[in-house]
Design goal:
Layout: E1 4-9, H1 17-30, E2 34-39, H2 41-45, E3 51-54, H3 57-63, H4 86-90, E4 93-100, H5 102-117, E5 123-128, H6 146-167, E6 170-175, H7 182-190, E7 195-197, H8 209-225, E8 231-236, H9 245-249, H10 270-285, E9 291-296, H11 298-301, H12 307-325, E10 331-335, E11 341-345, H13 366-374, H14 384-387, H15 399-403
Parallel strand pairs: 1-2, 1-4, 4-5, 5-10, 6-8, 6-9, 7-8
Antiparallel strand pairs: 2-3, 10-11
Helix pairs in contact: 1-3, 1-12, 6-7, 8-10
């Protein structure tokens, strides 16, 4: 039986997945390997009857520029005692290529250790994928899919901002991102939104709904002072990762609850929660500003990859073979500043529990601070006199004081 390489996709979709699948398939077929595409992620791989298909050049050539993933994905995370070698032995698999984010990478890290312990001659190379851009790659190196998702998000949020300008209203936008704010920050910056809120901003103070609400209202009041009656705020959904269940429940939203009694956030619009809190606070202040909620997330995951990601994902896919030839395993394929394929070993980016640590936005960096200090609108000390026309205590809405950055 010919030696084989298996490809597995897990987590959520991101533009460029099919480009990686196509590129890996083409280069390994050209070098005499069978290529197996696993449907259903890790759940299928370790089942009694894994669902997979043989991939060929013609199929790979049809899918390289498509959005979504031709291989069915799954968020299933197997426990260590669920790992087994059956699929690898039966199909003579010498390499498992995993495509995914931090959870997929963390599982791949555990799997690589399992295969080594079992003395299986099976390499594992991970291709870092996520629109959240939160994998710990070298500084300035994005995950594939991020730029395409950001491009689509900018297209949508630019239209939202134009609607705000046209109608003289505000929009409160929520963007995907889990515990990192890369996507919200990238979209908000590109769209010149007057308020951007990401969890990393609360590096010196506790993150609360009250502070988020006051930051949005700070921007609204500042624009009123400037004679601007419209605007938009973008908030990363990642802020919810730092909230206790009690505070989320206290918002007054009617949640459904999981088996452990935790509110099921996936069943509600995060932007609706933010907007409701803002509107409630505005009514208490008797400030007449209309705002509408908009959710940005699922629309971005399966869009067609832009040229950047088509090229980037192709090079990452071809780079898998380069690393495999060198005998590398238990690593992510990355591209350094010189354009060379470089392994990033999963053991070097894991925490004490073996989980790959997320990369957060460095809010203290110059390129981030220049946006917060110069491209947003919010109340400062110089605005207190004018701001008193709208709020009794302007200091409570002072952006820098809220974050304790002053």
């Amino acid at each position: 039986m010919k030696e084989a390489v298996a490809i597995l996709c897990a987590g959520g979709p991101a533009p460029g997945i099919n480009t990686v699948v196509s590129s890996v398939t083409k280069i390994f077929i050209n070098n005499g390997y069978n290529v197996l595409g696993i449907n259903g992620g890790y759940k299928s791989l370790f089942s009694d009857e894994p669902e997979f298909e043989y991939l060929d050049f013609e199929y790979a050539d049809q899918i390289y520029s498509r959005g979504g993933s031709v291989l069915k994905m799954s968020r299933f995370k197997p426990k260590d005692d669920e790992f087994k070698v059956d699929f690898f032995m039966k199909n003579n698999v010498k390499l498992l290529v995993t495509i995914g984010g931090d959870d997929t990478a963390s599982t791949a890290n555990r799997l690589a250790k399992f295969l080594a312990k079992e003395k299986m001659d099976v390499k594992n190379i991970h291709v870092p994928k996520t629109i959240d851009n939160d994998l710990p790659l070298p500084e300035g190196t994005p995950t594939f899919g991020y730029h395409s998702a950001k491009e689509e998000g900018v297209r949508l949020c630019t239209t939202i901002y134009e609607d705000a300008r046209t109608s003289g209203n505000w929009f409160v936008v929520s963007a995907m991102g889990r515990e990192a704010g890369h996507l919200a920050f990238g979209i908000g910056t590109a769209c010149h939104y007057p308020m951007i809120i990401i969890p990393e901003m609360f590096n010196k103070t506790k993150l609360t709904f009250d502070k988020i609400t006051k930051m949005v209202i700070s921007s609204m009041v500042k624009r009123r002072i400037l004679g601007i009656d419209y605007g938009a705020a973008i908030i990363s959904e990642g802020v919810f990762h730092f909230m206790k269940d009690e505070e989320i429940i206290d918002t007054g939203i009617n949640f459904t609850y999981d088996d452990h009694g935790h509110p099921e956030l996936g069943n509600v619009s995060k932007s609706h929660i933010f907007n409701m809190l803002v509107q409630t606070h505005m009514k208490d202040l008797r400030i007449n500003v209309k705002s509408r909620p908009e959710e940005i997330g699922y629309e971005l995951r399966c869009c067609r990859p832009i040229a950047y990601d088509l090229s980037y994902a192709t090079r990452l896919g071809l780079g898998v073979f380069s690393l495999f030839e060198k005998g590398e395993t238990g690593c992510m394929t990355t591209i350094d500043r010189a354009g060379n394929i470089t392994p990033l070993y999963l053991k070097d980016v894991e925490d004490e529990k073996g989980k790959v640590k997320p990369r957060l936005v460095n809010v203290e960096s110059e390129h981030v601070q220049v946006i917060f200090k110069n491209n947003l609108h919010y109340i400062t000390k110089e605005d207190y006199r004018e701001a008193k026309k709208y709020v009794k205590n302007p200091e409570e809405y002072d952006f820098m004081k809220i974050l304790e950055w002053d």
